[in-house]
Amino acid sequence: MNSDRAFIGVDFVVDFVDGKFGSENARKVATKAEEFLKKIDSSETVVLTLDSHMTNDPEFRVWGEHCLRNTPGSYLYGNLDKINAYHIEKRFYDAFFQSDLDGFLRAKEIREVYIFGISTDICVLHTVAGAFFRYYNITIIDDLCASLREEDHNLALNQMKRLYGVKTIKSGELVNLNE
Fold this sequence. Notes:
GO terms for molecular function: hydrolase activity. It contains six helices and six strands, in the order E-H-H-E-H-E-H-E-H-E-H-E. It is an alpha/beta fold. Helix 5 (120-132) runs parallel beside helix 6 (150-164).
């Protein structure tokens, strides 16, 4: 266990995995993320964010209606809701913006964050920016991230490395997923 780190799973919600913006790749990554989270030490700090919007949210002008608060599209996909994790509802791409994520992490004296999720080029990218501007040490678990297009995923990973100095790692480097 490493008590000053947290694992942050961004937006493994139905609309992004199996719903409006879902894809086969997102389903594979969500299943792999669930396996990963089941294998890490139960004393680790885990946060799962849930994209959750109000009616007529300004974001709908860009993406259309999705992840309406308290509807199935905003719920965690599959059995991820059974993972021992702190859940954070968020309305913006950046999970830190106007949420209690930073306060929660600081109360636990977290300095290092391992971020993964959907979509690499939108909510993961902006959450990384939020973490960077709050002085966290950031590692991306890149095989637990997905975008609608592979080129957007790769571009976002390169941007995060270049702009925010993040490290990337594979989930198997942290736990053995082949057992």
